[in-house]
Amino acid sequence: MNEPENKLALWRVLLIDDEEVIRRGLKGYIEASKLPFAVVGEAETAAEAVRQIEECCPDVVFVDINMPDMNGLDMIRSIQLHDSTCISVVISGYDHFEYVRQALQLKVFDYLLKPVPKSDLYALLKKLDAELQADLKKNRDDLMQLKQEQCQDLLMADGDGNDPQSSGYVLEVQAYIEAHYTDKELSLQQVAQLFHLNKSYLSTRMKQEIGCSFNEYVTELRMKKAKELLSSPFASMRMSDVARKIGYSSQYYFSRVFKLNTGKSPLEYRQQFRRGQ
């Protein structure tokens, strides 16, 4: 795995192409652009690409459409199963409508024809940087919103939390959550109705008695279960399956929540654990 030479680089790039001259050219262009990208890995086969993806945890992959052991589009499908947040760019020597159509269905970021002009690559890198910066800002905004919701829970506190019945409610709610955290429909509104409580009152009581609101408790429990699944030495579970097993219908949303709470993507967490074995 290559170490980033650009010390200001924010975004990690993996190049997947069986032609060494193409990889060398792309790497040179990217480094010369002075934009916040670093080529952290290269692969000339699909098998090598899978290994590099797990090691490098790239933000962006450039994928050749015509790989020797796997179609580039199938490679992108495989990447999306491993890490839905990774952005894919197709590089191809073929201007075939069917390839372009399938690439669009896979929601690739762009489709570049070889040989790639420097001006086109530079424009693409600028767009990629803007997209990644926007995603980063959204993650920060989501974290800020979560903190604001936590503050709101405290401001809505009703009383001093010494109601002798409240502890019993909270224990029952905790037990219910632990039995139903895999249910993607689990919500504060649903549980409050089940226990005949006001939802704000319930969340506030939980905050007072166990130190976290309803939503925080559910998220912490799901993150704990996700870490258990990701750190199992025998597990090679797809991220979409991990998400479903802990109550998220969207793999992308799960990846964002996991990164907000741990500072790492699920794939990065799993790879860090494996390297520590």
Automatic annotation (TrEMBL):
It comes from the Bacteria. GO terms for biological process: phosphorelay signal transduction system. Keywords: Cytoplasm, DNA-binding, Phosphoprotein, Transcription, Transcription regulation, Two-component regulatory system. The keyword Cytoplasm applies. InterPro entries: CheY-like_superfamily (IPR011006), Homeodomain-like_sf (IPR009057), HptR (IPR051552), HTH_AraC (IPR018060), HTH_AraC-typ_CS (IPR018062), Sig_transdc_resp-reg_receiver (IPR001789), Tscrpt_reg_AraC-type_HTH (IPR020449). It is found in: Cytoplasm. Residues 171-272 form the HTH araC/xylS-type domain. The keyword Aminoacyl-tRNA synthetase does not apply. The modification 4-aspartylphosphate is found at residue 64. Residues 12-129 form the Response regulatory domain. GO terms for molecular function: DNA-binding transcription factor activity; sequence-specific DNA binding. Gene3D superfamilies: 3.40.50.2300, Homeodomain-like (1.10.10.60). It holds the Pfam family HTH_18. One of its GO terms (cellular component) is cytoplasm. This is Two component transcriptional regulator, AraC family. It comes from Paenibacillus aquistagni.
